[in-house]
Amino acid sequence: MGQDNYLFVIAFLIVHANISMSFFTCGPDLKCSCTTRPSGAIAMDCKARNVKLRQVCENIAQIYPNVSDLNIARNNIGSINAKDMNHCRNISSLNMNYNQISSLRSGVLKDFRNILTLDLSENVLDIFNNTAFDPSVLPSSLRILKLYGNFREDSKLERSFAYPNFTKLRNLAMLQMDGIETDFGLEYENSSVKNLTLSSQGPLGFCSIKEIFPTTFHSLANIRVLDISSCRIENIYRDAFKHMKCLEILDLSLNRRLGFSSLKNITYSLQFTNIQFVNYSRVYTSFGVGTIILNRDICYLRNTSLKAVAFDGNNIEMIEKNTNLLLPKHLETIYGQENTFTFGLYLFQFGCLENVLHIHANNQNKMHSPIKYFAEPTSKNDNDRNRDSECPFMTEESLKSIAKDIHDCTYFPAKETVAEMKPQFSRSLKSIYFSGCNLVYSIDNTDINISPSNNTIEVLDFSKNAFHSLSGRIGPFPNLKFLSLSRSYCSFISSEILSMVKLENLQLDQNYLGEMFAHQGRGDTFEYLTHLKTLNLSTNRITRLHKNIFSRLKNVENIDLSSKNIEMFDVHVTSLKNLLHLNLQGNTVHKLNHKTRQLLEDNSMRIGKNFTLDLRNNSIEYSCSNQQFLYWLLDHKERLQGFHEMVFYRLNGSSVDSTAFLREVPHLRAQCRSYTVAIVLSALGVLSACAIIIAVILYKKRWKLRYWYYMTKQNYFGYRRLVNDYKDDDYRYDAFISYSDHDLHFIRDEIIPRLENRGMKLCVHQRDFLPGIPITDNIVDAIRTSNKTVVILSKTFVKKQWCIFEFNMARMESIDKRLCENGCLVIVLYENVPAKEIPLEVMDWIDNHSYIRYTRDPDGQPLFWESLTTAIEH
Ligand SMILES: *[C@@H]1O[C@H](CO)[C@@H](O)[C@H](O)[C@H]1NC(C)=O
Ligand SMILES: *[C@@H]1O[C@H](CO)[C@@H](O)[C@H](O)[C@H]1NC(C)=O
Ligand SMILES: *[C@@H]1O[C@H](CO)[C@@H](O)[C@H](O)[C@H]1NC(C)=O
Ligand SMILES: *[C@@H]1O[C@H](CO)[C@@H](O)[C@H](O)[C@H]1NC(C)=O
Ligand SMILES: *[C@@H]1O[C@H](CO)[C@@H](O)[C@H](O)[C@H]1NC(C)=O
Ligand SMILES: *[C@@H]1O[C@H](CO)[C@@H](O)[C@H](O)[C@H]1NC(C)=O
Ligand SMILES: *[C@@H]1O[C@H](CO)[C@@H](O)[C@H](O)[C@H]1NC(C)=O
Ligand SMILES: *[C@@H]1O[C@H](CO)[C@@H](O)[C@H](O)[C@H]1NC(C)=O
Ligand SMILES: *[C@@H]1O[C@H](CO)[C@@H](O)[C@H](O)[C@H]1NC(C)=O
């Protein structure tokens, strides 16, 4: 084996080892799955694999001593022996969730010196019976302990309960447990717990604590996060949280019976904490009479470090005037979603929210599903609660001084009524979420001035309202970056409304703007948005777009036109030097033009990022005429979003899925080539057949055509002199003699003297043709101005072109024009001409008409002259 081969084998082993080590099957009968952490420790997942604890631990001891995490949840373990666990004692994290465990004997976890996390949730441990459950069996190294879901409500007999004494767990930082009502509360010394969750959120947790006394959480001096959501709390005493100096997050949500009367007590005790966020959502019933927030409820918050507060889903209708002034100075985020806010003076005091950055107020007046009424505990009706408070911040002087310090803040005195007001935003505000609030507005050529004009608002989400038509001007919003007016029943929006020069993301999806785009003369809707990066026009019933609609969007990267009705995407794109993502999903596009394709490729190359194109659910034509585009798609299939869902359509309507497409497109060119050849050949065939037919017709009618030609020529360009010289019954000549020069002597010696002696006037070309005029014109003229044309048929006559020409012209004249009794053409057979030498048309004439045979026999001659004279004269 050469050195190269060795290297190859080693490389292979390394690669193979890496792959197989990061994720592999393990455990008894390889029922579990293992993953290796970068540190080398292994996490073994045996959740719901129907394994025995003992087997798993033995397997770990024998094969995988570095297993540090074991998840053996949902294996119906039941009771545990110390021996079962012995071999697992080195692990640091053990999950035994949902295992029907009813007791933990002492010694079971005794030697687990490294364990940090233990999950015993959703078992049947009787943890609130101090004789049944001894917390001292738990290893003192534990940092995270999950015990929730061990209390079933139906076990609530007439007995006393007490929280376990966790004094020995000196490292415990996070505790999740069921919440019960006790006289003592959680009492154990020097608690190190930082996160405590006593919530019944989740499927099996249980929490029912009617009142929170100052003693309930007395020992939790180090707590930072307290989650007592969904605990059926009804009343909270004034000093309940006072001793929690480190408290940062307090979650009181979903205590529907709590209402707002206790809020004063809560805010009071929060003054003594390090509170950052309070979740006071859904503490009031969703149905029924709305509620009001009073100054006295939140007054003490002014003396806290609160940064964010949530009041979602509380059916709040009103905020007392000047309440906004009492919100903490450093408050940054307010959640007030799913309420029923009505108009009030508080709306004019948004300028007082000095440092507030974000207001989330989505889904006001939310409609509740009529078929899904969740039975909720009714809150106490506390709207008539006393408005008094000793809180020092809500006195008139205090409120006035707060208002004085804030630039755009107005204080409303207690008694005076307020006249005309303008809404104010605070100078720090960055985002307002006001989606789904049933706002119904049409703004028609009205100017709405936003104050202050140098506001810092960057995000405005007003989607899911109803703005039927937006024209005029709202603003200014000199810093706005994101604007959503999605699903707002909007059918008109003017370029002035959209004159937010810094806008980067505009969401206009799910409106009715298609009609406007189709009839818009100038395509200027987006003319001010030169910074725009994302434009969403999805689902707008767009059929047509003005060619210049996107021309000014020179920074746009992403255009979403997924909709239903676009048939052709042929707007001007050359200025879109940053466009990389085009979504045309669900339209009826057949192809994408060359310019757009080229633009995407060029942009991608220049910017160094891949472009993406979404053409799913379109009607892309699978045909030879579209083959260039199809080849382009094949070349860029990685750039096509959801290529495998794409379907192409043949001209006969049958579809080609992406697999068939990949298989067949490479052969398309060849197919189309033979197809082209076939088309060309059949076209040629048809053409030549036509040509032959036309040629035959032309040949057959050649004399007629020539005759017409000359007649026309003469009528329009010829010599009027000649034309006007005669009338139909008044010819200049009695006969035009057509003959071959070879027979000239016969004409000169016989025809002319004999006939002219009888008083006839003959036209003989040698004598009567006008010089300087084309011979054809002379001939046609002679025929037309002579009563009859006499053809002296001889062997040479049939060979001379001009003679045949004269014959045919005379024939045509006689067929076409004149009503000569015996034809206008008199044929004199001067000598015997062999039948095969006579041209067809002459032969044909002779067969169908009479002719006069010349005879050299002196006896016959008088008869000949007689018949000739008669033929000419009649
Ligand atoms: C636990 O780890 C120690 C070393 O850290 C090792 O000596 C011992 O064998 C391990 N025990 C088991 C049961 O894997
Ligand atoms: C507590 O547990 C012990 C031992 O399992 C049992 O004898 C006792 O009845 C329980 N106490 C209550 C009040 O259920
Ligand atoms: C909790 O246990 C510790 C010792 O483990 C003991 O000193 C303390 O009194 C107990 N607390 C209560 C309230 O029983
Ligand atoms: C305590 O809760 C906070 C917030 O929920 C979380 O970020 C933190 O990681 C938790 N601490 C522990 C030890 O789980
Ligand atoms: C507030 O705290 C006081 C004193 O601790 C207590 O009497 C009262 O019940 C608590 N609740 C309300 C709603 O006042
Ligand atoms: C503000 O809170 C502190 C505790 O952090 C408290 O000592 C002080 O009395 C409070 N101020 C007022 C005016 O209530
Ligand atoms: C407040 O609590 C509710 C209910 O538990 C929860 O849905 C919501 O996300 C919480 N709010 C925040 C901002 O965490
Ligand atoms: C456009 O809006 C639709 C929802 O109507 C959304 O699914 C899509 O992600 C949005 N596109 C962009 C580019 O923001
Ligand atoms: C696209 O077509 C697929 C399959 O025909 C269909 O399931 C899907 O709903 C369509 N999507 C859209 C946005 O029309």
TrEMBL record:
Localization per record: Membrane
UniProt family annotation: Belongs to the Toll-like receptor family.
Organism of this sequence: Mya arenaria
Keyword Glycoprotein included in the entry's annotation: yes
Transmembrane residue ranges: 7-25, 675-699
Name of the featured protein: TLR4-like protein
Keyword Membrane among UniProt keywords: yes
Every TIR domain range: 731-872
Membrane topology qualifier: Single-pass type I membrane protein
